[in-house]
UniProtKB/TrEMBL annotation:
Gene3D superfamilies: 3.30.450.40. InterPro entries: DUF484 (IPR007435), GAF-like_dom_sf (IPR029016). It comes from Oleispira antarctica. It holds the Pfam family DUF484. This is DUF484 domain-containing protein. The lineage of its organism: Bacteria, Pseudomonadati, Pseudomonadota, Gammaproteobacteria, Oceanospirillales.
Amino acid sequence: MSDSLQLTDADVVQYLQDNPDFFIAKDELLASLRIPHDSGQATSLIERQLAVYRERNVELRQRLTDLLENARRNDKLFGKTKRLVLALINAQNWIDIEAALDDSLRQDFNVDHWTLLYFSEQKLEHPMHSISNKDKQREIHRLFKGHRAFCGQLTDETMDLLLDEKQSSAESIAAAQIRNGQQTGVLSVASDDPKFYRSSMDTLFLDYIADVLGLILPTIPQS
């Protein structure tokens, strides 16, 4: 005598997945099936499917809205970044570099504080600073831990190091390496809002600006 066959929920699910045409020509069965609802009322399988499709449609619409909003936001950021890059390309001296950065970062990007640290003997005016001390250069380099950029809340000591002065009102920061084969400096932007720059933020545009600076700064004449 053989054991009776015991069907599990998984068996039924697998069968229906393997036979997607099972309900074809079984309209009466479809109409008779009832699925419990959170409200306590039972709904037909078709009604439940329609409800699921509506929920998915709402979710997909929201995702599409988010994608379009991100695209519009990125388009605006691209336009602002493009204007800054063109201004940097046209810079003839360090005064032009400072003016281009200050105008763009403060006016277009609403940055509260910014600093450009450049590893050289070049004499620069705030908010640009030259870092000639090799130990300090290495200390700054170690902050990045192999990454091109980082952002978030840092210790007061680290904030002072990147901003090269005590910016008591700066609470969060984003910093990107300026490179030309190797690290040649740092571009930092800081906010008085401790939650403005978060560790999860994308630094794509800041990276791009830093890359452009890495190519342009070596061509600027020493003052």
